[in-house]
Specification:
With 147 residues, the chain is of the alpha+beta class. The protein has one domain: Roll (PH-domain like), CATH 2.30.29. Helices cover 16% and strands 50% of the residues. It has three helices and eight strands. The chain has an eight-stranded mixed sheet. The radius of gyration is 14 Å and the shape is globular.
Length: 147
């Protein structure tokens, strides 16, 4: 799959330079960067934020090491959870297409004062390996608002 234009031109959506050596030291199991993706928020309420439905494109990366799962979009950390954290069972993963990975969750389970479903959709050739590894770590199959 082709990388996002912002990644090809400016490197946006790559693994941040400061994070790369830390992640490599933890032994990267699967990763992809410069992925095209969509951030979807449904009925999300939080401090200073309210979205009935928000869809936003991004260029980002997803990395799974032996110790953690991290996602960055445009260099901002969006998901950061230890591989052995019991909250991992609150993540839902799905593959709506051959090269599409969906990670969704109820925001109140990860951020105090928030509520509503947040989803990240990644377009990557690594969708299958990401999906299988996340399930083996304890994530659930499906979508957060469908179960």
């Amino acid at each position: 799959m082709s990388k996002s234009l912002s990644f090809r031109l400016f490197g946006l959506g790559g693994i941040p330079k400061k994070a790369r050596p830390i992640l490599e030291a933890e032994e990267i199991l699967v990763s992809d960067e410069g992925m095209k993706g969509r951030f979807v928020a449904r009925n999300v309420k939080g401090p200073g934020k309210r979205y009935i439905r928000k869809i936003e494109g991004f260029s980002g990366c997803l990395v799974i090491t032996k110790k953690r799962i991290v996602c960055y979009s445009y260099g901002k950390r969006q998901i950061h959870i230890a591989a052995d954290d019991p909250k991992l069972s609150n993540l839902y993963v799905d593959m709506p297409g051959t090269h599409t990975l969906s990670i969704s969750f109820e925001s109140s389970l990860f951020q105090q004062g928030w509520e509503g479903v947040i989803e990240f959709r990644f377009h990557t050739e690594e969708a299958g390996p990401f999906h299988d590894l996340l399930l083996s770590l304890g994530a659930q199959q499906g979508h957060a608002d469908k179960g």
